[in-house]
Amino acid sequence: VKSLENPKYILMASVFAALTYLVRQNGMSNLVLVLIFFAISFRSMPKMDYLKYIAGIIAVFFAVCSPFMLQRYIEYGSPFTFTLVDNIFAEKWQFFDYAFSNVSFLEFIKTHSAGDLFNRYITEGLLRGVSNSFRQMQVIALMFLFFLYGIATKGLDRKFLPFTLNIATVLLSLSVVYYIANGGTRYMLPLVPSFIVFISIAIQSIVLQ
Question: Does pTM surpass 0.85?
Answer without folding.
Answer: no
